[in-house]
Each structure stands twice: as structure tokens, then as C-alpha cells.
Amino acid sequence: MFTSTGSSGLYKAPVSKCLLLVPSALSLLLALVLPHCQRFFVYDLQAVKDDFQIWRLISGRIICLDLKDTFCSSLLIYNFRIFERRYGSRKFASFLLGSWVLSVVGDFILVEAVRYSFGVTMARNLPSGFLAPVFALFVPFYCSIPRVQVAHILGPLSITNKTLIYILGLQLFTSGSYIWIVAISGLASGICYNSRTLQVHRVLYVPSWMAKFCAWTLEPLFSSSEPTSEARVGMGATVDIQRQQRMELLDRQLMLSQFAQVRRQRQQQGGMINWDRLFPPLRQRRNVNYQDGRQAEQPASPPLEVPEEQVARLMEMGFSRGDALEALRASNNDLNVATHFLLQH
User: Fold this and answer.
1) Residue 231 lies in a domain
2) How far apart are CA 240 and CA 243, in angstroms?
3) Same domain flag for 219 and 311
4) CA dist 340 → 271, 328, 334 (Å)
5) What range does the domain containing 325 cover?
6) Scanning 64, 177, 257, 265, which has its CA 20 to 30 A from the CA of 290?
7) Does residue 201 share a domain with residue 313?
8) Which of 230, 243, 223 shows the shortest CA–CA distance to 16?
9) 18-61 pLDDT per residue, tens
10) Where are the extended beta strands (E) located within 94-195?
């Protein structure tokens, strides 16, 4: 698993599982058993434009004819299943549908723009497959998944939990001559659909009746059992609580990364760590949770009162009083979180 985003496997991700199994199986079937049928799945924009072969927009933009593209896109879909778990299968499918439709328009616009601007006639065929929605998923991946530092290489360069995903996306981006058209239109469609200003999600979405029909017919085929070898996170609670717990888990990973970075700076420069600057998101989130969702503007509160008993327990472990005080204030007097910070770093 590329990122720490909950349970491994395809639990609670039937749409992702369907996209992994069905197109991949058809790609292998066309490549190994039925190569003479590949012509029906070629993404031929010229045929769509001149001969009105609209069916090519469907067949050519679902099945990959290049096995390397199939492999890379499958790995990315497996990683991006986290959005289906976070937002639900219907919203995830709506994003894929919306980005798929918008990217069709983007492909035509890009090809015509290159032809009119530079006088260059593009190739008749573009790379086939479910590629544009995969590139579109990089938009919410960049915007909503926290960046957690894993290791440093060559001084300022660092490896994060998202580095391998970007490398895999770059590999897919450079796998063909004209795949950059599909990639750009996919990214543009992801930005448009993710934008709250354009309100595209109110127009392009999966209807509730279709979602219910697919849940009744297809979900039993592609559902996966819950992994038993992992600790359960929020199971048995409501969907909102499960999502909140997963977001808090990601917040803790981000806090650990920030703590490590600032602690190294402190060792080099000296001085106290400004915890209030580092960790406002967790405090704001917890305030919202414990006040039943009520958000109100309040004046700046005095420094959090830290129980001396908890400070003494941390000092017994060998930590200084200053570190113990700051760690407890940053974690809202959560002794377990504060101990985890100090032990890990």
C-alpha cells in the first residue's frame, strides 16, 4: 500500500474493484486471445468526428490496448480507492463519470487547438483506456491527502507518502506519444469537477435510482470482506464518525512529520517550538467534534492548563519539563499522543 489510508485491500470499495477487474481482464483478453478484435476499441477521434462513430467514445475510452498502461492505471486506481471509502461509492462514481464526460470535450478542444495554433495535425488515434478519470483523481489526491515526510535524500529533497504515486503518474504520462492530451484533459476535468464555483457536480452525477440498482445487482459481485488481520477503525459507528476518525489518523501522521521537522530545526537553532502555529487543524477539528458541530467566533483563549501529574509522568520517562509541557499543550492534554510524539522523535 502506497499511503497509510486505512485498511488494505478493496474493502468498502466495490467501484474500484470493478474498475480493476473488468477492464484489466478485457485488456488481457484482447491482447492475448482476441488481438483481431482490438480495432473495435481504438480511440479514433477522426472517425468520431467525420463518420459520427459515437460508440468509439465509449469503447475506446474504457479498455486499454497497451498492457503497460493497464498496469499503471490499475495501480493508481487501487491507491485512489481511498476516495471511495471517504466519500462513498456514489460520489466516487459521480466524480469518475463527470471527469470522463468533461475529458471527452477536452480531448477535442486540445486536438483542434494544436491544429489551429501550430498547424500540426495530431495522430488519428489517441491512447485507449480509462485514463482521463485516473489523471483527474490526482486533483483530489493533491488537495485532500496530507503530505507526510518519510525520508530525506540529497539535502532538501525528501520522500513523502505521495512520492511513489506521483512517480507512477509520471510513468503513465510518458508511456505514449499523445497521452499528454488525455492527461491534460483529465487533469482539467478533475479541476472543473472538484471546483465548488463551477458546480459541475450538480449537473454530472450518478442518479440515485441508478446507484440503488447497481448496489442491488453489482455490489454483491464486487464487494470484499473486511480484513481481519488489521485493527478496526470506527467499525460499527456511523459513516460520518468513520470518516472523522480516518481524518484524525491522517492529521496525526501530518503532525508527526511536522514535529520531526521542527524538532530538527530546534536542535540546530535552539529555542521553544511554537506548537500553536504547527497544529491548529487538530485543535479546530476537536473543538468542532466536542461542540456538536457548532462553530462560533471566540476570542483568543489563555494557554491550556496542563496537569502536573501528566507532566511528572513524562518527566519520569526521561523527557525535559519544557518538552513535556509543549507536547501536552499541542495534544490537548492527550497523554498518549504526547508520549507518541516524544518517543518517536
Assistant:
1) no
2) 5
3) no
4) 21, 11, 10
5) 307-344
6) 257
7) no
8) 223
9) 999 999 999 999 999 999 999 899 998 888 888 888 888 888 99
10) 125-126, 149-152, 158-160
